[in-house]
Task: structure prediction
Amino acid sequence: MLVTIAQVSSAGGINSMKDSGKKDKPGGSLFLADRLRRRAQQEIAKGDLKAAVRLLGRAKKIQPDVAHFAQLYAATLAELNLSARRSEGCGRKAQASKAKKKLSVVSCGFGPPAQMTCESVDAMRSCGAVYSCCLDAIAARGVFKLSIPLVRCRFQSLSRNIRRAFVRHDNVGLLIYGNPLFLNPHVEGILRDISSLAEVQVLPGISSFDALVNMFGMMNLSGKGVYLADCESVVKDPQFEPEQDTFFFSPWRINDKENRRYRAGFFKAIADKYPGRFPVFLAKYSLNPAKCEIIRGCVACLPSLLKYCDRAHTLVVFSERGQLSLSNSPPWLRLEVRNKCVCD
Ligand SMILES: C[S@@+](CC[C@H](N)C(=O)[O-])C[C@H]1O[C@@H](n2cnc3c(N)ncnc32)[C@H](O)[C@@H]1O
Result:
């Protein structure tokens, strides 16, 4: 039979050609070596140079006297080493360019510039652009005055704008109210999106929880600690821990049209766990002390209390023990509670 052997192109690939007419019987060593060579060619076509080198190594061993197999083996091995070096270089280059880019996620607390940390201000000043969807014009002016390159935009365009900004800048900022990663599930999508092209650093800020802790003077916790709940999930699957001081974040969700079918179940579940006249509070912190709010109702009239609730209120239900320390609050705390209980 005529043996087909391969020739290595200048790029290291294998081209078919006819041998000088060498013949071999099926099952002979030349026949077997050539079969290995053909399989190697298939592996190269699939892009598996490692497998091709292995097969050609075997062919070379079977036919040490045929120079073509040794040449093929050497050339394919060289190609394999070259491509390994190339991909190593590409990986390092990609990593280096990602390492150069940084997204700083910073907080303005509940009112810039007063509640921004020095660390956050420094990080924002080092940015080419800082995007935010949560500042009004007055708050934005306060940020501009600190020489921070603020760009206000809608939430929906944050991710796209940040991506585009990385074409021009190495450092870009995302400014959020409260503590950036405290109950902010929609920010996760943006960070996931950006983390493929930049390092992401999140700097701590002041959360609504921090603000409420001071408003209520929570120097002690209930014996069983604190329960933080997000009404997004609690309204659908009511869970209450009456022995813990409880903060229900986003209580506006109980009023939300989307949750209409869960409302009655939520009110029944809380009424099953607490006495009807047990006090509940809607609390809102503001940088302006005159605008801080604590509105009192009770478990029985919670549906009517929630009429006062906007997106910045948190629903607070203390444990018996927490309730006691609230009624004996120190004089300097000056808790101003508006009573809206319709059961009194
Ligand atoms: C989506 S969460 C965001 C929390 C924010 N990341 C933080 O650190 O406070 C929004 C909820 O936080 C609470 N919240 C926000 N601003 C508040 C304020 N000024 N006073 C009291 N609670 C507030 C409310 O329960 C509101 O529905």
Remarks:
- The chain has three domains: 2-97, 101-206, 209-339.
- The radius of gyration is 34 Å.
- The first strand starts at residue 2 and ends at 8.
